Input
Amino acid sequence: MTVRCWGQNALGGPRSLGFVTVTAPAATGWTRLFGGPWGVCGLTDAGGLACWGQVASESRSTPVALTGPELAGVTDASVAYGSICMLRTTDNSRVCWGGNTSRQLGDGTNLDIANPKVLDQGQTADVALSSYFGCAIRGGGVT
Output
């Protein structure tokens, strides 16, 4: 499947007010998209993850594949301004990184997280992130 984007895309995405086709890295297609206020991440049909626009405090004009053992098994994501949290269904973990000044990543600190960090291993069923707070369903309830 292909992805088409439109709009201003002023913060790092494809710059066009018309339609722009976004090509997945490594000649794969897309299976799912997760959007935020200034950026988008998507799962590829090869099981990878790529992001573009303003995501986790970085601007990317084209999709950049994200790699690392922390991202293996990611099936869902929530993208906010400068932060991202993902759900790993392989072990029910939450993986987050980016800006954290309002403690929105839920690691118990207000320090930014530069690289993907596994949180709530074995406890997370879903995750939602906002620019200033986050929520996760874990252990049967929302925290």
Notes: The chain has a mean pLDDT of 83. The two ends are 35 Å apart (CA to CA).
